[in-house]
Amino acid sequence: MATEAALQHYHELVEVLRARRGASPETSYVAQLYAKGLDAILKKIGEEATETVMAAKDGVPDAVIREVADLWFHSLVLLVHLDLDPDAVWVELARRSGVSGLTEKAARGNSAQRKE
């Protein structure tokens, strides 16, 4: 379970990511990603997802934690870049709490079919 300090750090990180939108790409890695645009951010997320899978297959718990942290970090960068509230992800997860994964997946499948 996340500690209060970890939750505080999360909120501070989100604020830093928001502030980096106005930072110089010469002084900030995140500002560089924002300046390069959506495709660069998506590419980085793909790389981190692949590295997460590889770490899991290698069976090294510390490596899995590090790679998931990278994946989550870059996912937060994406959300901020798109001007979406990262807390909305937690709201969505809470909405799914207590709902069977099979039921939830079936409901998403039906809504995807309706969009077509």
Automatic annotation (TrEMBL):
Q: In which pathway does it act?
A: Amino-acid biosynthesis; L-histidine biosynthesis; L-histidine from 5-phospho-alpha-D-ribose 1-diphosphate: step 2/9
Instruction: Say yes or no: keyword Amino-acid biosynthesis present.
Output: yes
For this protein, the record's Pfam families field holds: PRA-PH
An example Gene Ontology biological process: L-histidine biosynthetic process
Keywords linked to the UniProt accession? Amino-acid biosynthesis, ATP-binding, Cytoplasm, Histidine biosynthesis, Hydrolase, Nucleotide-binding
Enzyme Commission (EC) number: 3.6.1.31
* InterPro entries recorded: HisE (IPR008179), PRib-ATP_PPHydrolase-like (IPR021130)
Single GO MF annotation: ATP binding
Q: Where in the cell is it found?
A: Cytoplasm
Superkingdom, taxonomy of origin = Bacteria
Q: Which reaction does it catalyse?
A: 1-(5-phospho-beta-D-ribosyl)-ATP + H2O = 1-(5-phospho-beta-D-ribosyl)-5'-AMP + diphosphate + H(+)
Q: Which GO terms describe its cellular component?
A: cytoplasm
Q: Which family does it belong to?
A: Belongs to the PRA-PH family.
Q: What is this protein called?
A: Phosphoribosyl-ATP pyrophosphatase
